[in-house]
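Review form for a predicted model. The reviewer records the input and the model, then writes brief findings.
Reviewer: anonymous (R2)
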Amino acid sequence: MESGKLSSQIVEESKLTTSLTDNIVLIRTIFKNNDTLTMRQLETPTDPAIKFCLFFSDGMVNNRLINQDIIRPLLEYRPDKKEPDLIDLIAKNITLSDTVEKTTDMEKIVQAIVYGDTVLLADGFMEALVLNTKGWQSRSIEEPENERILKGPREGFTESLMVNLSLLRRRIRTPDFKMEYLNLGVRTKTHACICYIDGIAAPEVLKELKSRLQKINIDGILDVNYISEIIKDKPNSPIETIGSSERADVIAAKLLEGRVALVVDGTPVVLTVPHLFIEYFQSDEDYFINYMFASINRILRILAFIFSISMPALYLSLATFHQEMLPTSLIMSIAAARQGVPFPTIVEGTFMLVIFEMLRESGSRMPGNMGTALSIVGALVIGQAAVQAKIVSAPLIIIVAVTGIAGLMVPLIKGIGVPLRFILLFLSGLIGLYGYMFGMLAFLAYIFSVTSFGVPILTSAYSNDQQDRKDILHRTSWKNMITRPKYLSPNKIRNSSKGDSL
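Model under review:
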């Protein structure tokens, strides 16, 4: 072997032989300078000519499984003669591993070792056995920190792919629930799984997702956001066209509606497609509380989003360009509060909004209660000091505070809410209410043009079917949710305990 060659090149160019010594040298060369690779050589007590070698990665395996299910049965094996089909005999009659696979593919052998499996080689055979011995440590199942609710299931995904799939399988106990594995990342070979319910999910969405995933060509996938940025319909759009959640019950519900999920090993976040704009305003808890109360909360979130992007722009427009639209007492109060403030309103607004975003970001990065205290104390101290120093006016402080509170009600949409807030503010600073209206019209025209895997993200807003609007601006009762949305599940749309029907 040439020492200058990369391990990946050696894997591609090499294959196993019948010489156990040569195979050991080959695998050790591939894992050169990797001290976690563990090798164990064995001989049968009655016939030392029958030799075995085990390879596994320390820290990735369950040592008890290796000792009891592989090493002990091999040492207890008493052959009368050398079996011509020894590898098959070991796989079927000797090892106690729950999963055994025979292979000659070096790529599969290497991936098995690095992913926690054990590879068994026998002298005189060019096939290897891959035995399941995975046993690495993983985080326990707990409620997601960013999706806490007061009522409902509290199980969240972890960084383990199999644990996450088991959480979904436990909720969807039907053979129609399909799981298809794939590897992503040229070097990381990250395991992922496409999940969908056959007969409910739209075939064209599933086909498009697989096509986009196959085109991914980067070194590593360490988080689902890597995938989301690559496969989304408009990579440069601030509007997310791929949904995500850390809650198992949320993903299960979306699968039952007809969406397709992508579970990736090493991250607790699961992606779903297609993603609709209204999902920004749907809360996990909406489906575990009374539907009337849930509907009121959803309407409040929609209004909060409108307030969060509009209030600074409307205040600037009315206070600067359209004072005649305000009551005389109010405009006099605003004028009195602005006495001595050296900056125009647009500079005040921009300054305070930037300060608020800095406080919000720093508060979210600080640990626990310290972050909350920093945000509250920082906002009070800076706001009061700025007003007393006549840097900004008191009405603007109120506007920015209400804007920030409204924005915190819909945290999932801050990716589009924050830039849109500044854009509307600048347009209003140029031509008043006309700028605000032009900006809102442009925004509406844009989101009407955005699609998620072929499905317009606002398709539910202009659907003529009453059933398609049952969970949009409000949530109706469960007994009235008769069918699934047609734009998500075009094949079988009935949502009933009696089964699916056309």
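Findings: The chain has 16 helices and twelve strands.
Further findings: The two ends are 62 Å apart (CA to CA).
Recommendation: see findings above.
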